[in-house]
Amino acid sequence: MTLIPPLSPDRLYRPCDTGHFTFTTTAELDDLSEGIGQMRAIDAAHFGIGMRHAGYNVYVMGRPGSGRRFLIRQLLDRRVGGEAKPPDWCYVHNFDQPHKPRAIQLPAGMGTRFHADMQHLVAELQATIPAVFEGEEYRRRLSQIDEEYSERQTQAFGEVGDEAVKQGVTLLRTPNGFSFAPMKKNEVMSPDDYDALPQEEKTRIEQAIASLQEQLEKVIRQVHQWRRERIERVRMLNEEVVLFAVGHLIDDLRRDYADFPVVCGYLNEVQQNVIESVDEFRHPKEGMSALAALSSELPDFSRFRVNLFVARDGTEGAPVVYEDHPTYQNLMGRVEHVSQLGALVTNFMLVKPGALHQANGGYLLLDAFKLLSQPFSWEGLKRALSTREIRIESLGQMVSLVSTVSLEPEPIPLDAKVILIGNRMLYYLLAQYDPEFGELFKVAADFEDDVVRSADNDLLYARLVGTMVRRDTLRPFDRGAVARVIEHSARRAEDAEKVSTHMESLADLVREADYWAAQETREVVTRDDVERAIEAQIKRSDRLRDRSHEAILRGILHIDTDGERVGQVNGLSVFQLGDFSFAQPSRITANTRLGDGELVDIQREVKLGGSIHSKGVLILSSFLASRYAAEQPLSLAASLVFEQTYGQVEGDSASVAELCALLSSLANVPIRQSFAVTGSVDQFGRVQAIGAVNEKIEGYFDICKQRGLTGSQGVLIPASNVAHLMLRRDVVDAAATGRFHIYAVATVDEALELLTGIPVGTPETDGSLDQRVAQRLEHLAELRRKYAKKIGLGAVGRPGNGDE
Amino acid sequence: MSEQPAGIRILVALDASPRSTAALTAAASLASELGAELAGLFVEDIELQHLIGLPFAREFSVLSGAGRTLSQGDIERIWRREADTLQRQLAEAAGRLRLPWSFRVARGRVSAEVNTQARSFDLIVLGKRTGIGVVTLTQTRVTGVHPSSRVGPVLALFEDASTSAPSLELGATLARRNGAELVLLISAGGEDAYRAACTDAQTAVNARGIRGRCVWLSALDGDSLIKTARREGAGCLVLADRERFLTQTGFERMLDEIECPIVLAR
Q1: pTM of the model
Q2: For position B46, what pLDDT does the model report?
Q3: What domains does chain B contain, in order, with CATH numbers?
């Protein structure tokens, strides 16, 4: 039997070759703006941003902290400077439908001017109109109208009065009008005097009064007609006066905005409204009346003002907006209200823009998770992108909770590129379950989690470190420090041949290394500073690891690191605590007995095993059956358990260890407890790669080291995991000096030979493990046959079968 | 109801017209300034009493021109309601300024009742029409077409320094208290006389701490005063030498056609 040799130390850690670094410190390197190894994502983003057609919005996916947003922002910043500045948007009063404010588009910068011009116009109107109406000319002309009207009345009534006097009758004022009465000595004749008149005189008077009453009726009707004429003449006079006073002001504006028909149309409406509401200018209200406050009446001539909704003054190129809190209203805009006399009122000046308005004509960056967490935001965004317009609606109205009269601002056309930044799971969930998602977000920019380690990428990484150093005003890193950063990134990537692209953790490490360099009063960050930063990061997080290891060392958790035991092997479990993960050995035991082929996974039975773990156990059961009982029933019952575990066990990385424990129990061959085993197994006994191989090796090494390294201890790992090894310095050193060993196994047979010290061989090979297993299975089958005969059961367990 | 009578007494003749409200305000201002007692007078017009006794008595509505029969009951109810309202308004105005006040209802001709009462009062403020004769609707309906918050000027008639001292004094007081312009109606036969009288009048009001604008009144008759008051949009007209006006022919017409309250001083 030839046992496989342990891995040489150079395979346990791949150092960064500083020989191809041509710099002394990162201060000599140029900034890196495009990221490392993200060309696929960057190209996709370029494409998405460049496509101006509808639906080509971009979903940027990758792990949080991978620097996606930073890179996209950089890409946009470089691009938008050369793009045209989008227009300004204003809301103005709609004189026909006051609850539907009108949107006006103006070239960038013109909105501010229009806003100022209208404010100036209102001030001019307030000053000019009262002055004109107070003027002598207006008063004289008004007086002429009044006098003319008065004279016509006087004449008309006078004629009636004169006629009455001729008849000996007077026109008399009564509480609600007029009457006629006969006169006597310049006074109304008393009833007694009237009674004393001869009948002919009475008849004459009554006929005269009847005739006068008809005349009076005609005059009163005529007077009403004159009054209407007078009102019309006064109205025309007022219009003429207002036009004289303000027409030139509005004409000036019309000339200035001649290229904008919408503005000219609006100015026409303003002029008409000023004429109609001239009294408001002549006699401005002292304060707002309670009734006005509760109505939609606008205070202080605000209806002629301009709500400068989106202004592009002081900006260059297209806008790039990142909305950190994408509530529905922050996104779509809102209509605010103010409290007046206890009632909430609003007007078009209180219409406020959302992020979509601000980003219109440019780019809007949103965090997908935050967007989906906010009620109605996602639906609102989709609606805006589908209809290509931004419609401001209150949430209450949108879900039909309230139906009070509010504003319905005219929708604004939307021409913005939306860039969602999120993780992959959200992307695939949206793609699967939201049919509109694919139509609206046609471009996915998928950021890599890691990139291949190569000389070129190492240099790019060095430039990235240099960029971060400059951005945060840190000390430059020397070559050794950069190399250690790259090695640590490889460890983060769990792959000696890759480096992580997780920018956030990289930036943390760079800043913390700078801190430790400062503590040592160094001008340049060295490898030692990076090493110390890494150790400090671990130290800050490893309290639970220490407690766990302490429990093993004190014998509370039974883990053997020497001697031999049948049906027991050291497996390795990983614990993930936030950003920190560690491993500890777990004692896996197996028990075999007479049975009918059932393999009991105790973890699964008590619902402490996950589905992948159960899958691993079922695979090894299949392996067992195919290798040892392909042509006969497996007369075996076996049980497997992770001893002293009290939580969920998930994953199949212990399936090699479980198989070894099971075969050890079956063959009654002891297993060396100085080894720990990790790896999953397929139905043919091939060992497959697992995750967190470095943590697992280090977890077992730490226990062995504290108990004392004997030179016989080691860890068996899948051969396919060798490429992932980036082990700690002390583990590599122990391996180099022969005090600890790492074995890479490709099959379960190689693992069994290392663990038991005997060859696996075949059922026919004397002394081999397989022969012992076969003999035990044969023995169990024999026992089963005897037992079945004894109780009258068939070999297959059916009562009364008796096929023997 | 009435407080202890003060030394100075002001009579204010009231009815339900807007002018009456203005008259009450003017009278209350003067009473407050002079520390005077305010005496309200409501005259139930005897002419109406006579009218409703006639078999063909009909009232023609200002609004529609339609006629309806007038009854004694109608008139009595209207008078009662108007008197109650005016008494309440007077009480409120006097109460605000802590003035002694009284209110009286009389029946007769307005001018005769005012003349009768005049002897007992230092000032008379007229806010009531006489009720008879030809009147125009301008006074009752048209003023609302262009509502103005502007306080109309106080018009004070100036004939000569000795006769018109009371009208200047009262005019200046009313203008100052109400923040109104003071217009001096200068009655003069020729331009030189007008200029001289204007200078005298302005000097007199300047001494009372207020500036006055002169307006030439070519004739001192009812028509001239009516036209000037209308043209100036008068808020109040102040006349001295009241006995002359009260007995003057055409005063009743003037009272009817001038829209603002008329203050009559001795």
Answers
A1: 0.68
A2: 84
A3: 9-132 (3.40.50.620), 151-265 (3.40.50.620)
